[in-house]
Design a protein that fits this description.
Length: 171
């Protein structure tokens, strides 16, 4: 990879990171907070498609640190870090495996992230007892996650197969 290519990829990653943080900041504390996380995870996947894995790891690290520093809700920043920054990268690695193993790893990853969120909410962010809601959270979270994962795969496929041709982007 030439320096010019690397510069273009890093610049695209930087612009996407700025857009992601702006979206998280402006829309994150509204009723659209979950939708914004889904949109930001699609942005992470686009950075991966256009810039490669190394730039995507940099993008995820930068946006995660900025989210922790700039967002008023640290819990929302934590949700972003796990579900919209880290998971799309892990998804790429999981999907290299046979389908059954990939789904098991993806669901295990989600449940681990949900448990970490529940524990942090309980121990760090509030003293309220959220553990009676743990089972419904896992069930609804897993159901949402399956739909989210399928839709994310479809969106990236449409982008790679159709939209890149329409925009005449190089492969």
């Amino acid at each position: 990879m030439t320096n010019k290519n690397l510069t273009k990829k890093l610049a695209l990653g930087g612009v996407m990171a700025a857009l992601c943080i702006a979206l998280l900041y402006l829309l994150g504390l509204t009723a659209f907070d979950l939708s914004v996380l889904v949109l930001c995870s699609l942005m992470t996947m686009l950075v991966m498609v256009e810039c490669g894995v190394k730039v995507t790891w940099i993008y995820a690290a930068v946006t995660s640190v900025l989210a922790l520093l700039l967002l008023p809700s640290k819990l929302y920043a934590l949700e972003y870090m796990m579900f919209a920054a880290l998971y799309p990268i892990l998804k790429m690695y999981f999907e290299r495996l046979p389908a059954m193993y990939a789904w098991l790893l993806e669901i295990s990853c989600l449940d681990s992230m949900l448990m970490l969120c529940l524990v942090l909410v309980r121990l760090v962010f509030t003293t309220a007892d959220f553990f009676p809601f743990a089972m419904p959270t896992f069930i609804l979270g897993t159901a949402f996650f399956i739909v989210y994962d399928i839709v994310m795969t479809m969106c990236i496929s449409v982008y790679m197969i159709k939209l890149r041709k329409i925009f005449k982007l190089p492969k």
